[in-house]
Design brief:
By secondary structure, the protein is of the alpha+beta class. It is 30% helix and 21% strand. The protein is rod-shaped, with a radius of gyration of 52 Å.
Amino acid sequence: MKKNRTQLVAAIAAVMCAGVCLAGPRPAPGGHRGGPGPRPAPMMHRSLPPPHRHHHHHHGGSGFVGGVVGGIVGGLLYDVVTTPTVTYPSVVVSQPVVVTPPAPVYQTQNVWVPGCYVNQVLANGTVVRVWQPGHYEQRTVVVQ
């Protein structure tokens, strides 16, 4: 909102400057373009004016033209500054990433099995602990 207000103030200032620049000179308070000085005498007491040795450009209606141009420019700038801009957040839909793990690789290897005691059941039902020495076995293992 603060940005729009700043832009509006800048647009109004630009329109005012354009109107002043295009308006041209104004008559002085005395009623003629020569600036301050004596007011002209009424018609009955006045003699003929001396011939002018310099040339004046009279800009009749240039204030009106400046106002029209300033109004058009100001209206366009006002529309640009005050027109709301609607922006929608962008929605990014990403496809799920499917990672297929590599197929496991199996290999048969000789593996050392350490020695241990095992329980052995005799024919009469008694359990006897017997030492089984360590040995190699062939086992299928996954190789990474």
